[in-house]
Input
Amino acid sequence: MNETNKLLQEELEKISFSEIAMKNPSADAVTTDLNLYDGRNTQFGYADIVWKSDKPEIVSPSGFVMCPPSEQTVTLTATFTYQDKSDLKGEKIFQVTVLPSADSNTTPKLDTNKIRIFVAGDSTACNYPHEGKNNRFPQTGWGQVFGEMFNDEIIVVNCARSGRSSKSFLTEENYLFICDNIQKGDYLFIQFAHNDCKYEDLQRYTSPNDNSYQECIYKFINTARNVGAYPVLCTSITRNLPLDTTLVPYGNALKEIGRTENIPLIDLYELTHSRLNTGIQNFYMRLEPRDKRFIHNPEFTHSQYYEKGSIDNTHLNINGAYEIAKMVSEELKKLNHPLAEYLI
Output
């Protein structure tokens, strides 16, 4: 084993269950959702993480925990790939024991008596940890807070993951989780483009020009329609770069699909890009060290951004996430969409 791999293994061994525990007291007594984060700062730079569960019907690759009728052991495998070292790969394995819930045999995430909204998307929509050693507060995806827009008849199952394109998402466990759980009467919100346009990465790149983007989007649409669920299309939020038009062709392709297939579409790109000069730029992850906007949030003082700040024109802070979630809600009302009646 060379020195780099030795250091890698030592670092992986130091990662404890407490990083993913959230409200669970130990790996031997899991009853609520886990923080299966999709990225982490390491001594080798930033690592992208893909999780695999040997029992996804009990613990999903997004960290949703569905308590079984009897105690079950689940193996969770995290595969680390490093953005600055493409030849480096690591693996961390956790074994957890999921206990029956005192309240029910499943978490509300999979409560089939409620209408579920599944969200498939990227880092602008996904969940971020706001506690523990990987605390990224105030970074927040709009899908993370979208459920707060609805009454208790709706459950939002946010399967969006950082770094995914419409192409790469289809190859992962989170897509299989949606396929296995979405059912008649549910909804699937679809938002991809930010990573589809990365032409240097063939694992993620798609293009509206050769229809590879559209082909991927249709797979999501058919995933919903094949079981009697309803797709909803969302163009991607803009970057905080007024002159950047990279996302426009993807939005135009998505709008054409919406028109052709008579699928509701929420044009988040237009809604956000048109407001870049009217204050919405404050909703991105551009933070001063000890940023005064969040200094009174107890989560912020323990965040990795507290001392160093952030210069990020793509991802949302918590204020931005709520703003986008409200935009989506308002557009549902304007569309007279069936989900509008459940909005608070």
Remarks:
- The mean pLDDT is 92.
- The beta strands are 39-42, 45-53, 72-82, 85-98, 115-120, 154-158, 187-190, 230-234, 265-266.
- The longest strand covers residues 85-98.
